C-alpha cells in the first residue's frame, strides 16, 4: 500500500515538473519576435515596432491579440536588456521565466519541492484571466502626454494612475479605481494609466517614484494624491485640483451686481439653480472648461436669501435650472431645465451661448473666433464692426447697434464693436481716410477676413452711425447687397494684431496662481515630499525672474524701438529708388530660363507656376512688390514662383499670348494707337504646365496721378519737370501689382478665366532677342 502511495506521489511530482518545463520552454523571445540570436538591437527594435502595431489589442480584433501583444512586449524587454538576454542565452530563462527564481515571479515554492503556476490560484498578474485590459484604453505614452494631455489639462482635469507589473498594492486599489473612473468619465474628466515598466521616462517626468501612485494634472501642473484610496477621497481630490473662484455664490443681494458685470468682463453670465448647498462637481468642471468665455454663478434654492430670485425668474424647484444672460440682465437669453443634467447637454447649451450679441473686441483671440478667416470649403463670414468711444455721448448709437444685433438671425453675420482709444492701431487702418482723432460720430465697417496674416476686404458704411432710423436702413441695405454681391467690399488692408485689453488683470491672475502654488507647497511639506516640492519652487522662481526680467528688457528696448521706424523709412526709400536690395526676395524665385523644363513643361499635375514679367530697369522694384503680395501664399505646396525677363525672352511671351488668342483680346485697348509694341512689364502669368492653360493678370495702376501735380503748381523749371516725370514713372511701376493679392485669391478659388494653349513654345523661343 505504501509503495503504491509513493509511486503516485512521484508520478504527480514528475508531471508537475514536466508541465513547468513545457511552460518555460514554450516562451522563446527570439521565436516570438522572429529574430535570430545574433540579431542587433536595431533589428530587434525595428521588428518590435512592426509587431506591436500589428498585434495591438485596440487595432487587432483577434481574440489572441492581447496574449500575443504581452508576449511581444516581454520578448522585447528581455532582448533589449543585456543582463536578461545573457541569462536567457546561457540558461534558457530569465527572472521572468524562471520557475523557482527570486520573489514571486511566475511560480511559487511549495515545501521546496513542488512548484505551482500562479494561474492555479488565479493571481491577477499579466494574464488574460486575471487583471483585465480595461486600463489599456487609458494607457499613456510620453509623447501623448506632452502633446495631448498637457494642453487639454487647461480645459479639464486629468486623473492618472502609476502602476507596474507584480505590484500587489496596485491590485488592492483596482476595484475602487474602476468604480471611480466610471463615474468621473461621465463628468468629462480625463483618465490615464502609466505603466512604469514601459514608460519609465514619463513616470520620471511626472515625479512618480513608487507604485501605486495617483496624481492629477490641471493647467499643466501635477499634484499627487496622498490619502487613502477610497471613492470619496478621489472625488474630493479632483474637486480640490480645480482653481478657486470658478463659480460665484449668488443671492438676492448680489445678483444685480453679478449680472451687470457683463459689460466690464465682456462675457455672458450663467446662473444654475439647484437644491444642494454646495456647487455640483459637474458644474465646476463646466465652469473650468469655459472660464475664458462665460462667467458662472450658483443659486442655492434652499436658502431664504434666494427666494426673490426664484420668484423673479419663475424657477421650478423640482429640477435643476440653468439661465444664460447676455446684454439684457432682466430677461434670460436662453434657458434649460432637466432633472438629470448630463455633460453633453450642458456643453451644447454653453457652446451656443459663448458670446454676447455684440461683444467688444478685447484681444486677438476673440477676434479670431468671432470673425474667422474665410475658408474655401466653408460659407463666408462677415463681421459688422462698430468703431465707437467710451463717452456717454456715444451711448445712444451703441444701444441702437445692439438692438440691430439682437434682431439678427443670419448666421453669416457677426456684430461686434471696438473702443477706438483702446484699439487705436486697428482703427487707424480702417479709418485711414479720416482724421485720426476720436470721431464725433460712430463708424460702421463691414469686413471679411481673407487670411491669417491679417488681410481683410472691407467697406465703411457712408454717413457714419448715430443710431437713427436712416442709419439702420442704410446698414440693412448694405448687408442685403453684400449677400447678393460680395464684391462690394472693394477696399483691402492688413490689420495689426489687436491689443489685449485685459493685460492689466495679469497681476491679479498671477497672485491667484501664486496662492495656488503656495498651498500646494505647504501640502507637500506636510507630507515631506521634497521631490515634488523642488519643481514647484523652481517654477515660482522662474516666473519671478521672467516677470521682472521682462520689465527690465522693456525699459532698455524703448530707445531701440524709436530708431526702428527711421531704419524702415530708409530701406523703403532705397527700394523705391531701385537699389539692389533683393537678398530677401530672391530666395522665393527661380529663373525661368534655367528651369524651364521642370517649372513648366514637366510641371506635376495640380501644380501652378506664377511668373512675374519684368525688365532689367524694373527688376528690383517689381520683385520687392511681388514678394510682398504673394508672401501669404508661399505656404502652398502647389504654387511655384518665378520671374521672366521680357528683355531677354520677349519672343517666348509673344508666342504664348499668340497661342492664347483670348488673352490677346484683353490687350487690344492698349494697341489701338497703331502697331506700337505692347508693354508686358508687371504682367503675371499663372501657368498650369500639365493641363496647358494660363491665367493672366493685367497691371492696374491705383496710385495717385502725379503727372497732374506740376500743372496745378503752376509750372517750374525744365529740370524739375523731368525729375517729377521720372518719379511718377517709378511710382506707377511700383503700383502695377497693387491688386495682385486679390487676383491670387481668385486664382486659389478657381474663379479666374483660363486661356488654353495648344502647346508650350519650344526651347528655341527661350533665346535673347537679336
Automatic annotation (TrEMBL):
Domain of life (superkingdom): Eukaryota
Segments forming domain J: 28-92
Organism expressing this protein natively: Cyprinus carpio
Region (Disordered): 563-583, 706-730
Subcellular location(s) of the protein: Endoplasmic reticulum membrane
UniProt cross-references to Pfam families, sorted A to Z: DnaJ, Thioredoxin
Name the record gives this protein: DnaJ homolog subfamily C member 16
PROSITE patterns hit by this protein: DNAJ_1 (PS00636), DNAJ_2 (PS50076)
Presence of keyword Lyase: no
This protein's UniProt keywords: Autophagy, Glycoprotein, Signal
Function text: Plays an important role in regulating the size of autophagosomes during the formation process.
Leader sequence segment: 1-25
Amino acid at each position: 500500500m505504501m509503495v503504491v502511495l509513493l509511486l503516485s506521489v512521484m508520478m504527480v511530482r514528475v508531471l508537475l515538473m514536466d508541465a513547468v518545463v513545457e511552460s518555460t520552454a514554450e516562451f522563446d523571445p527570439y521565436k516570438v519576435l522572429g529574430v535570430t540570436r545574433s540579431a542587433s538591437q536595431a533589428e530587434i527594435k525595428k521588428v518590435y515596432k512592426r509587431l506591436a502595431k500589428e498585434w495591438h489589442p485596440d487595432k487587432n480584433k483577434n481574440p489572441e491579440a492581447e496574449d500575443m501583444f504581452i508576449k511581444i512586449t516581454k520578448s522585447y524587454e528581455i532582448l533589449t536588456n543585456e543582463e536578461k538576454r545573457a541569462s536567457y542565452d546561457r540558461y534558457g530563462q530569465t527572472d521572468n521565466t524562471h520557475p523557482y527564481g527570486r520573489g514571486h515571479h511566475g511560480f511559487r515554492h511549495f515545501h521546496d519541492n513542488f512548484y505551482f503556476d500562479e494561474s492555479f490560484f488565479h493571481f491577477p498578474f499579466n494574464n488574460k484571466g486575471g487583471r483585465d485590459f480595461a486600463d489599456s484604453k487609458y494607457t499613456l505614452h510620453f509623447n501623448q502626454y506632452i502633446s495631448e494631455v498637457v494642453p487639454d489639462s487647461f480645459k479639464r482635469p486629468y486623473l492618472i494612475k502609476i502602476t507596474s507589473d507584480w505590484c500587489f498594492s496596485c491590485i488592492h486599489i483596482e476595484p475602487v479605481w474602476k468604480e471611480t473612473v466610471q463615474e468621473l468619465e461621465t463628468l468629462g474628466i480625463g483618465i490615464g494609466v502609466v505603466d512604469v515598466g514601459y514608460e519609465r521616462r514619463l513616470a520620471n517626468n511626472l515625479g512618480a517614484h513608487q507604485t501605486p501612485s495617483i496624481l492629477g494634472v490641471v493647467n499643466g501642473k501635477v499634484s499627487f494624491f496622498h490619502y487613502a484610496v477610497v471613492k470619496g477621497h478621489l472625488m474630493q481630490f479632483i474637486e480640490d485640483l480645480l482653481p478657486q473662484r470658478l463659480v460665484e455664490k449668488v443671492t438676492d443681494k448680489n445678483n444685480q451686481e453679478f449680472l451687470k458685470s457683463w459689460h466690464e468682463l465682456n462675457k455672458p453670465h450663467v446662473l444654475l439653480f439647484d437644491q444642494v448647498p454646495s456647487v455640483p462637481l459637474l458644474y465646476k468642471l463646466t465652469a473650468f472648461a469655459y472660464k475664458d468665455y462665460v462667467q458662472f454663478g450658483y443659486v442655492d434654492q434652499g436658502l431664504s436669501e434666494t427666494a426673490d430670485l426664484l420668484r423673479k425668474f419663475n424657477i421650478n424647484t423640482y429640477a435643476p435650472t440653468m439661465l444664460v444672460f447676455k446684454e439684457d440682465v432682466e430677461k434670460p437669453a436662453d434657458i434649460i431645465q432637466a432633472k438629470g443634467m448630463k455633460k453633453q447637454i450642458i456643453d451644447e447649451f454653453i457652446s451656443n451661448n459663448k458670446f454676447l450679441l455684440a461683444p467688444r473686441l478685447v484681444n486677438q483671440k476673440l477676434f479670431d473666433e468671432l470673425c474667422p478667416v474665410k475658408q474655401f470649403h466653408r460659407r463666408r463670414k462677415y463681421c459688422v464692426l462698430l468703431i465707437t468711444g467710451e463717452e456717454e455721448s456715444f451711448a445712444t448709437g451703441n444701444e441702437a447697434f445692439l438692438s440691430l444685433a439682437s434682431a439678427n438671425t443670419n448666421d453669416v453675420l457677426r456684430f461686434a464693436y471696438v473702443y477706438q482709444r483702446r484699439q487705436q492701431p486697428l482703427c487707424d487702418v480702417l479709418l485711414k481716410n479720416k482724421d485720426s482723432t476720436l470721431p464725433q460720430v460712430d463708424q460702421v465697417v463691414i469686413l471679411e477676413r481673407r487670411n491669417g496674416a491679417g488681410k481683410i476686404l472691407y467697406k465703411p458704411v457712408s454717413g457714419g452711425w448715430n443710431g437713427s432710423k436712416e442709419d439702420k436702413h442704410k446698414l440693412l441695405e448694405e448687408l442685403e447687397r453684400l449677400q447678393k454681391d460680395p464684391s462690394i467690399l472693394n477696399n483691402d488692408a492688413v490689420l495689426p494684431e489687436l491689443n489685449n485689453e485685459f493685460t492689466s488683470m495679469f497681476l491679479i491672475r498671477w497672485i491667484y496662481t501664486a496662492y495656488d502654488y503656495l498651498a500646494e507647497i505647504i501640502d507637500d511639506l506636510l507630507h515631506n515630499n521634497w521631490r515634488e516640492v523642488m519643481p514647484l519652487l523652481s517654477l515660482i522662481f522662474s516666473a519671478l525672474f521672467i516677470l521682472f526680467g521682462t520689465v527690465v528688457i522693456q525699459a532698455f528696448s524703448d530707445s531701440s524701438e524709436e530708431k526702428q521706424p527711421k531704419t524702415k523709412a530708409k530701406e523703403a526709400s532705397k527700394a523705391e529708388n531701385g537699389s539692389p536690395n533683393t537678398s530677401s526676395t530672391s530666395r522665393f524665385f527661380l529663373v525661368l530660363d534655367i528651369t524651364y523644363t521642370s517649372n513648366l513643361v514637366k510641371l506635376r499635375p495640380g501644380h501652378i507656376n506664377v511668373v512675374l514679367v519684368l525688365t532689367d530697369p524694373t527688376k528690383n522694384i517689381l520683385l520687392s512688390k511681388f514678394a510682398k503680395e504673394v508672401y501669404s501664399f508661399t505656404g502652398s505646396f502647389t504654387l511655384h514662383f518665378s520671374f521672366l525677363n521680357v528683355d531677354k525672352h520677349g519672343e517666348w511671351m509673344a508666342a504664348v499670348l499668340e497661342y492664347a488668342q483670348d488673352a490677346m483680346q484683353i490687350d487690344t485697348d492698349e494697341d489701338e494707337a497703331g502697331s506700337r509694341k505692347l508693354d508686358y512689364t508687371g504682367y503675371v502669368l499663372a501657368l498650369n504646365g500639365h493641363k496647358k492653360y494660363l491665367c493672366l493678370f493685367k497691371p492696374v495702376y491705383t496710385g495717385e496721378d502725379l503727372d497732374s501735380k506740376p500743372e496745378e503748381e503752376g509750372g517750374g523749371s525744365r529740370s524739375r519737370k523731368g525729375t517729377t516725370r521720372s518719379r511718377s514713372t517709378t511710382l506707377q511701376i511700383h503700383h502695377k501689382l497693387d491688386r495682385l493679392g486679390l487676383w491670387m485669391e481668385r486664382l486659389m478659388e478657381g474663379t479666374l478665366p483660363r486661356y488654353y494653349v495648344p502647346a508650350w513654345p519650344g526651347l528655341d523661343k527661350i533665346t535673347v532677342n537679336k
